Give the backbone structure.
Amino acid sequence: MSVTETTARKDVRPAESAPQVRPVPPSGERGRTAIADQVVGKIAGMAAREVDGVHSFGGGLTRALGAVRDRVPGGRSNGVTRGVKVEVGEKQAAVDLDLVVEYGVAIADLAAEVREEVIGAVERMTGLQVVEVNINVVDVHLPDEDEEEEQTPSTRVR
């Protein structure tokens, strides 16, 4: 045996002299969790819908296309993410919401409540930090609009 090999072996502990204890690696060293934009969008959409005063999501064109898509056999879309846009990074997320609010609701108060609900739900369910929730009020739903929608014949898609 050479001197170098002898010196190196002196630093090695025998297996039976000390138990092998491995430090627990910090979170993320055992794998990666990726959360899709669509998942965060669904969570944000559901949380926002729970707030009283939110009538629907999306601008007029988005709602019209969604309604047509819902009537096409097999083309049923998930309306939960309609009017919801998200950007998801490794640790943070940003949410944009296009809302139609009920007439008579204080929009500033509604926006604050929606923002709070969305941030709470997304952070609790995903562990992501929500850096911003931008709310764009695109329309106000009037009470008499329900009557007009019921009286117009449904659009047939072939």
The first strand starts at residue 54 and ends at 57.
